[in-house]
Amino acid sequence: MDFIPVLDKGFVRLVEVMGGDHSIVQAARVSYGPGTKTVREDRALIDYLMRHRHTSPFEMVEFKFHVKAPLFVVRQWFRHRTASVNEISGRYSVLKEEFYEPELWRQQAGKNKQGSEGAFPDEEADGLLRQVEEVAYAAYQALLQKGVAREMARMVLPLNLYTEFYWKQDLHNLFHFLTLRLAPEAQWEIRQYARAIAEIVKAHVPMAWESYEEHVLGGQSLSRTELMALRGLLTPEVYEKALRELGLPESRVREALEKLFGGPPRP
Amino acid sequence: MDFIPVLDKGFVRLVEVMGGDHSIVQAARVSYGPGTKTVREDRALIDYLMRHRHTSPFEMVEFKFHVKAPLFVVRQWFRHRTASVNEISGRYSVLKEEFYEPELWRQQAGKNKQGSEGAFPDEEADGLLRQVEEVAYAAYQALLQKGVAREMARMVLPLNLYTEFYWKQDLHNLFHFLTLRLAPEAQWEIRQYARAIAEIVKAHVPMAWESYEEHVLGGQSLSRTELMALRGLLTPEVYEKALRELGLPESRVREALEKLFGGPPRP
Amino acid sequence: MDFIPVLDKGFVRLVEVMGGDHSIVQAARVSYGPGTKTVREDRALIDYLMRHRHTSPFEMVEFKFHVKAPLFVVRQWFRHRTASVNEISGRYSVLKEEFYEPELWRQQAGKNKQGSEGAFPDEEADGLLRQVEEVAYAAYQALLQKGVAREMARMVLPLNLYTEFYWKQDLHNLFHFLTLRLAPEAQWEIRQYARAIAEIVKAHVPMAWESYEEHVLGGQSLSRTELMALRGLLTPEVYEKALRELGLPESRVREALEKLFGGPPRP
Amino acid sequence: MDFIPVLDKGFVRLVEVMGGDHSIVQAARVSYGPGTKTVREDRALIDYLMRHRHTSPFEMVEFKFHVKAPLFVVRQWFRHRTASVNEISGRYSVLKEEFYEPELWRQQAGKNKQGSEGAFPDEEADGLLRQVEEVAYAAYQALLQKGVAREMARMVLPLNLYTEFYWKQDLHNLFHFLTLRLAPEAQWEIRQYARAIAEIVKAHVPMAWESYEEHVLGGQSLSRTELMALRGLLTPEVYEKALRELGLPESRVREALEKLFGGPPRP
């Protein structure tokens, strides 16, 4: 399951991994030393690290992917700077005639300026896209045949052209990438890549993934005012009871109560 | 107010700032273009960026500090890698006889393995500390007088020795530094430095600070299970009413409801 | 001179600078302390830092630019990760019909697979380019009119489309950017942007620029074997004489001799 | 050979590696595509990448070390920011009574303000060091026994105390670390660690190491003026002959001549 097709012609392929859940534990135990050697099991330690945002042990796991994606997706992807990357160079090689052609077209969202909503088939739109591809790729080839340098000729190619790259990133930064790119605000196309990566990551570091899902991906940041509103509507007792009923262990119940009802005041 | 004494002999001094609240707005408007030129005021735009974790515009403001702090504080400080730093070198110069001497001693916390609690004066402890300082600095001077290289002689000096450094960091990463170092889990001494920096930052980017305080510093990350517990205890109506009573604007009320009661499902 | 037109429709504009030559000196003096306070003048200190690759004081100066450039240039530019950036988003705004149209076309280089050579006008090539632009932009508008989301519609646009962004980077990393992008191997178009940035940087940190030109930009890295060949062809005496005749100060002559004829052996 | 003792009580131990020489080639081939598939062998490709400073493929190899070193060495080490690190925390655990005790003492260098020269045994100096260790560690224990928090008590400990940490870094950044820390200007103690790391790296990526040694470690950066002096003393013919006699292949001879006698002019 380390090769996952994405969109119409793209993919995510796992090339290599360094470490796993055990590497997170191993690095954390160096930091916390004999002091934690006792009862705490690996799963509990990883969960502790995740919910207290002790991020450095998660940097000790490294993933390397081979990805094929359209240029407009890659432009979003490479905004993440904490990674290593090698991409096909259009200066060295003639770029292949491979374009992303969506099955459905999404509508411009009304309220949300950056988003889209709904999705519909539209043959006319398909035709417009295909026409651009054909005119552009024909121009690309004509320029090359004239002897124009590849580095110049490529500028006629549209942003739905496929490219390929290697992507190497540690688990902490990969989680950050996923948080942003699995979010509903992310563009649908990059979300499909994020889902493929998520599937691979989950399979290789199941404990870290579980904690990530519980505390980050499935969690929410509440503002001071939102916490204040909740505080006015609930008592600690009723919240504590509800948390226990959901099976939270003692230490997590205590932490949850502290978040809502206090604990050491912030400066 | 750009020079703030910290601990017994340390300080934080602002050397230079590049930009301010207006630079955040300026950079954001490049990204979002004419699409946002309309009604949104600066304060609202900054708040939107902060609560949706659009962090790049905050990188457009840069602070440079001159800091004097004990070595054990500096060791924690320099774990932050997204900054530029120049520190006094004990290879080039003879280090001065200046040591941090706390007014009060804090007790080892019971449950929390990394923490401390309570604080008490203790002349015996003061004496132990001073004895180490004297023996160590005398040895340092004796080694130098023997002609031992400065780079070697310095290894007898204890971790409460004061050092000085320049620290340059952008506002996004500075907020991250503050979030970690103002937290109650941070060691008391570095928290005093964080508070001094916070005071300076607040004075120079008041709008960004206000949003940071509301959404990050004064906020909390709730896990999936905690959200589930809350969801079982409240109705959207009662929560909405409480949020409105606290004066939240319409768009923020909508967002708050979405966080707790849904909105587009995560993949 | 802080706005420089580049290519047919692009530009580089300086938005803000933090610090200057004096900031490099100021930060270096913290590191080296009273030990260097004596005779060394600013220019000599900056030159010393540059040629010994003491890079951290150069990080203490920060530049912020506003740039307008074609997408294929921006794709190369953003491979530099040690900077902060905000770019126009095609998800928020309708992108303008502005394309890079070269005056001359460059020929594919023979030996050098990534390069180009020669340059010629070619009306047919101009026509091919313009045809792609027209078909692509018409398709973009038609898709938008159909209600297709901006984030999708933009994928028909070609890589010679102009975009704009803010770019903030410290001087050390900016020098690194310039070294790579002023090099003859860099694509001609990005070299024009690098030259514009170089002009601005030179005007704001003239001393640092002078040292950068002498030791990095105008210098060369010689391999062990190349050094060995030179060593076999020259005597220290003859080289020393030549260096002196070019006006090098004593300390630099000594360093130059050490590079070629030895000095402390590497491990 | 993946565990190497360093100094009197320290060590460098390889924990994990991701990839090897083949990973550099693999990533480079993605970038340069079919265009380079032909004749170039792996060794030649790696050497090409190294001497043209195409650094990104070297980022595709990752090393993780476990290191035990004195605090003053670690303070220098952690100035490198492009790595991941987990260190023993003196807040969680009681630090062990282990101190670096040098066999020989080095003399303060005369001209070079940061350096040392000569080395001599000195029992008096040994005694001074040992006295500081004893007084400091006794004070540490006494403070702990009084109930003082570990995070405070540790501040009496001197900089020759040993600590341990995990260090994860990619090969490109590791080479940069080695270039700085194998240099004769680096402090002798950290140089011993760099040598141990160099030995391990060399064994795992022999081809990359060979190129690194030829082009970086054993090479030198010559300034514009130094190149000018050489140009005045040699003819291309005589230099070419000497290069050939040392067995340089054709393409490298051409590049070497270009560095000294021209080639495309810099802007």
Automatic annotation (TrEMBL), chains A, B, C, D:
Q: How is the cofactor bound?
A: Binds 4 FAD per tetramer. Each FAD binding site is formed by three monomers.
Q: PANTHER family from the entry?
A: FLAVIN-DEPENDENT THYMIDYLATE SYNTHASE
Return the protein name.
Answer: Flavin-dependent thymidylate synthase
Gene3D superfamilies according to UniProt: 3.30.1360.170
Pathway in which the depicted protein is active? Pyrimidine metabolism; dTTP biosynthesis
Residues annotated as binding dUMP are Q76, W77, F78, R79, E87, I88, S89, G90, R91, R154, R181
Q: Which keywords does this chain's UniProt record carry?
A: FAD, Flavoprotein, Methyltransferase, NADP, Nucleotide biosynthesis, Transferase
Q: Give the EC number(s) under which this enzyme is classified.
A: 2.1.1.148
Cofactor dependence is on: FAD
Superkingdom of this protein's organism: Bacteria
Residue positions annotated to bind FAD are S56, R79, H80, R81, E87, D170, L171, H172, H176
InterPro entries given for it? Thymidylate_synthase_ThyX (IPR003669), Thymidylate_synthase_ThyX_sf (IPR036098)
Summary of the function given for this chain in its UniProt record: Catalyzes the reductive methylation of 2'-deoxyuridine-5'-monophosphate (dUMP) to 2'-deoxythymidine-5'-monophosphate (dTMP) while utilizing 5,10-methylenetetrahydrofolate (mTHF) as the methyl donor, and NADPH and FADH(2) as the reductant.
- Catalytic positions are R181 (involved in ionization of n3 of dump, leading to its activation)
Which GO biological process annotations does it have? methylation
Which transformation does this protein catalyse, written as a reaction?
A: dUMP + (6R)-5,10-methylene-5,6,7,8-tetrahydrofolate + NADPH + H(+) = dTMP + (6S)-5,6,7,8-tetrahydrofolate + NADP(+)
Similarity comment: Belongs to the thymidylate synthase ThyX family.
Molecular-function annotations in GO: methyltransferase activity
What is annotated about its quaternary structure and interactions? Homotetramer.
Q: What class of enzyme is it?
A: transferase
